[in-house]
Amino acid sequence: MAAFMKWRSHPRFKDWVYLESETAVYNVDPEFGFAGTVDAIFRDPDGDLFVVDWKTSGGLYQSMFAQVSAYAYALEDMISTQLPNTFSNSNGNGHGSSKLSNANVRSMVVRFCKEYPITDGVPDRTQPKAFNGRVHYAISHEDFDPTDKLLVFQAAYNLRGHDRVKGRYIR
What we know:
The protein is α+β, with helices and mostly antiparallel strands. Helix content is 20%, strand content 33%. The strands form two sheets. Strands 1-2-3-4-7-8 form a six-stranded mixed sheet, with helices on both faces.
């Protein structure tokens, strides 16, 4: 919970509106159809929707961005074709409420950094990993480029698991 609250209280994200979590998304393309579950969906103050994927791995990897970009692609398609009245574009004061039939959907990976406790200067692997106070994140169009989201998703099948991507840390 401390890791989530650290991310949520960051000045860039504190005004984001939580919309929902564990949301099923899918794309019914006959050749490249897929489905998945989005960890969370937020709306930023500009009205953009963000598909957020939480991670606790050892780094940020290209395959993670392929996954979250595919989810964003699917959500964007679902909103524009099947669910045009799903998310309100209200600014929170009840004014300007319009539906997002042409929603700008972006994606984000947030990694809650965990490590083994240190005993006598050495990581104690007999203990469970714990949050170390750092949050690592990357946002589409800033830290990675999902210009062709479907191709990025397809490329995930050919990516090596350790193709690290640089992101930003919240310390």
